[in-house]
Amino acid sequence: QVQLVESGGGLVQAGGSLRLSCAASRSISSFIFMGWYRQAPGKQRDLVATITSAGSTNYVDSVKGRFTISRDNAQNTVFLQMNSLKPEDTAVYYCSAAYFSGTFSGRVNNYWGQGTQVTVSS
Asked: pLDDT tens digits for 27-41?
């Protein structure tokens, strides 16, 4: 199994910042993508940001210009820097690692972290 451990969540006021970390039990360069998702109560889990092993990034429109995803390959760690936080950013944030489920299948699955709570007050 692969373990992903998130940290850095907490309670902040609107306009504040947090940096989330995701430490993986093996090289993150082994995965197709690393990503951050979030899930608010009663809502589905939505993609927030992704980063490839080559460093290409993608963001959901609602966080563009405020959030930055990055990685430190030497520490097997992915980060999510969150600035100018808004109450609507409140959610449990999950780290994910995308991988091929079989040598020849071409199917992509995800490993998941346990999640870390981010709460933004007004």
From this structure: 999 899 999 999 999
The amino acid at residue 63 is V
CA distances for 2 relative to 37, 47, 58, 89, 111, angstroms: 18, 20, 24, 28, 7
Question: b/e for 35-64, b at 16 or more Cβ within 10 A?
Answer: bbbbeeeeeeeeebbbbbeeeeeebeeebe
Q: What is the DSSP letter of 90?
A: -
Tell me the average pLDDT across 48-64: 96
Output DSSP code: residue 29.
G
* Distance, CA of 119 to CA of 110 (rounded, Å): 25
